[in-house]
Structure formats: C-alpha cells, structure tokens
C-alpha cells in the first residue's frame, strides 16, 4: 500500500511540473504569482510564556516547548466529562441517549463495501481547491485533475484499507499549526491566545467524504 502511495506522490510531482509549463505557455503573469506568492506568517514558537501558580516564566527549551504544546492541545480536544447519574435519572436525557430499537442493523452492511469510481468522481467534483494539504503536499487540485490510472490506484488504497481495517500510516499523521484566536498579530507567546488547526492528508479526507456520503444515504 505504501508503494502505491509513493507512485501517487511521483505523479503529483509530474503534475506540478506540467502546471508550471502550462502557466509559462498560457499565462506568464499567473506563473510569477504562483512562484512569488507570499506565505502566511507563522507563529514563532522559539519561546513560550508560561503562567503557573501566579508566576510567569519564559520557556526556550525546544523539547519542553513541544511537550507543553502537545499537552495544551490534547486538553483542547479532550473528552468532555458526562454526568452518568444525570443521564440515568433525567427522563429527557435518558430518552435521547437510549438506543433506537427500530433500526435494522442490516442497513449498514454496504457501508464498507468496495468503493466504485463513480463515488470517487462525485466527491472530486465537489471538492474545493483552496484547502491546505497534509504532510505529502498533495492538494485537492491534484486529485481533481488526476487521470483514470491515478484514481484507480487511489481506489485500490481505499479498498485495501477497508479490507485490512487499517489505513496507511501516513494518513494517521497530521500537522498541527497554532493560529491566533484574535485578529491581533501579537499573541504574546501565550498558547492560551491560540487555537490549533490540523492539516490532514487530502486522500484520507476524500476517503472519509465517500463514507460520509454513504452514511447520508443510509440515514
């Protein structure tokens, strides 16, 4: 499966080269804009301001900064505590959370059936092209303009992942970027003034969109 994904990355490189050629042939101005486009300013994580027990300290050790950042964002997305006693004795909530007995479990039988080309093409047709990619750098635009061979390889990866009930390791990784909560450019080196965004592999997101479409049809 990893070999197939490497083939896709090679195709992506060829795609980008061809795009540059097209810009040069058809629109030099567009090509220059692509080459010279400014990247968004990134938050400088070389130091953090830590407030603990009424005291303030500045952390500059990179390993410690990474550890603090990971713990901070784990709490950001941590599980919410649920008062089970309230669910047990509150009639309204108990009714909401009670399993639906009138649902036939067989309706989910086709959820993990092999993915067809038509399903992939439907998702690709509706993809937005202005989304940031994951670690591989493969954007939605690559998939939208991909040829039949590339799409067949992608479908093979999807179906193999479902058979093995496990996705390729690269799809389990994401890039976390802290961004300002406010419109101010200065975040004062305080993580509490940031929020995380996670960049995931576009192939993984396409796969999930296909499954969501199936769920929508079922439900």
How much strand?
A: 5-15%
Count of spatially separate domains: 1
Question: Roughly how many Å apart are the termini?
Answer: 32 Å
Described by strand count, sense and barrel closure, the largest sheet is: 2 strands, antiparallel
Q: How large is the radius of gyration?
A: 23 Å
User: From the helix content, strand content and strand pairing, which structural class follows?
Assistant: mainly alpha
CA-based shape: flat
**SSE sequence, one letter per element:** HHEEHHHHHHEEH
Uncertain runs are: none
What's the arrangement of strands in the largest beta sheet?
1-2
Helical residue percent band: 40-55%
Helical stretch tally: 9
Mean pLDDT: 80
Number of strands: 4
Give an overview in words.
- This protein has 219 residues and is mainly α.
- The protein has one domain.
- 50% of the residues lie in helices and 10% in strands.
- It has 9 helices and 4 strands; from the N terminus they run ααββααααααββα.
- It has helices spanning 2-26, 28-36, 62-76, 84-89, 91-97, 117-125, 140-144, 148-164, 202-218, and strands spanning 48-52, 55-59, 175-180, 194-199.
- Strands 1-2 form a two-stranded antiparallel sheet. A two-stranded antiparallel ribbon has the order 3-4.
- The longest helix is centred in the first third of the chain and has 25 residues, at 2-26.
- It starts with a helix and ends with a helix.
- The mean pLDDT is 80.
Give a concise summary.
This is Reverse transcriptase. Helix content is 50%, strand content 10%.
